[in-house]
């Protein structure tokens, strides 16, 4: 009898903890995005090919154009990344490096690379550390999660490092060599993205 009560208590504690942890996750209305002028915390992450990327090291070579995308399942993301790839040489000529970040695991980064032809770095945001620092990670509404999973084959519960099903606002940030946000494009409407032209104009002012 004691074992039954003990096991029941463990199960109840688990569900309370899980509920509390999920309740702490932000909605899309609550995320604000890191502001211009704010310092960016250094991060180290793994790219699509298993290589290690270090922001601090990269900034020694020039500014970083850091953008967040939702996943290989997102047609708007794939179109955006393809457009940036088409203008990659022009952005590089400004002395900048393009880094795209997603909560999806490495195998899905490879799918994005294949679908978009991206020759820039695609990073796996394990445990949402990067998107949390930039305040772009949120939990979509349940009906949207169902739509993403059934119609777009997102599989949010298994494609990420945990089952919180969070995704990022597809924002773009330019980080200067001092490690601060010099420019940003932040819009909760996932269809509105920073164009290559906007990014290059912003780089000219840094």
Automatic annotation (TrEMBL):
EC number: 1.11.1.24
The UniProt record lists the keyword Signal: yes
Signal peptide: 1-23
Domain of life assignment: Bacteria
Every Thioredoxin domain range: 34-206
Reaction(s) catalysed by this chain's protein: a hydroperoxide + [thioredoxin]-dithiol = an alcohol + [thioredoxin]-disulfide + H2O
Keyword field contains Oxidoreductase: yes
UniProt xrefs under SUPFAM superfamilies: Thioredoxin-like
GO molecular function: thioredoxin peroxidase activity
Cellular component, GO annotation: cytoplasm
Short name of any one Pfam family annotated for the protein: AhpC-TSA
A single GO BP: cellular response to oxidative stress
InterPro entries for the chain: AhpC/TSA (IPR000866), Peroxiredoxin_BCP/PrxQ (IPR050924), Thioredoxin-like_sf (IPR036249), Thioredoxin_domain (IPR013766)
Keyword annotations from UniProtKB, A to Z: Antioxidant, Disulfide bond, Oxidoreductase, Peroxidase, Redox-active center, Signal
Enzyme class of the recorded protein, top EC level: oxidoreductase
Task performed by this protein: Thiol-specific peroxidase that catalyzes the reduction of hydrogen peroxide and organic hydroperoxides to water and alcohols, respectively. Plays a role in cell protection against oxidative stress by detoxifying peroxides and as sensor of hydrogen peroxide-mediated signaling events.
Entry's family note: Belongs to the peroxiredoxin family. BCP/PrxQ subfamily.
Name under which the protein is recorded: thioredoxin-dependent peroxiredoxin
Lineage, broadest ranks: Bacteria, Pseudomonadati, Bacteroidota, Cytophagia, Cytophagales
């Amino acid at each position: 009898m004691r074992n039954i009560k003990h096991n029941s208590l463990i199960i109840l504690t688990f569900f309370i903890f899980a509920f509390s942890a999920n309740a702490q996750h932000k909605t899309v209305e609550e995320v604000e995005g890191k502001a211009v002028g704010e310092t960016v915390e250094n991060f180290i992450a793994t790219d699509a090919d298993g290589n290690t990327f270090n922001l601090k090291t990269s900034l020694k070579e020039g500014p970083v154009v850091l953008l967040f995308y939702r996943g290989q399942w997102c047609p708007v993301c794939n179109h955006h990344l393809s457009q940036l790839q088409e203008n990659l040489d022009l952005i590089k000529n400004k002395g900048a490096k393009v880094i795209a970040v997603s909560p999806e695991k490495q195998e899905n980064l490879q799918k994005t690379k294949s679908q978009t032809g991206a020759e820039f770095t695609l990073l796996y945001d394990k445990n949402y550390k990067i998107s949390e620092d930039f305040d772009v990670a949120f939990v979509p509404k349940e009906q949207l999660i169902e739509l993403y999973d059934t119609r777009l084959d997102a599989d949010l519960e298994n494609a990420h490092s945990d089952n919180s099903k969070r995704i990022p606002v597809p924002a773009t940030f330019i980080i200067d060599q001092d490690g601060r946000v010099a420019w940003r494009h932040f819009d909760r409407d996932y269809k509105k993205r920073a164009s290559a032209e906007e990014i290059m104009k912003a780089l000219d002012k840094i």
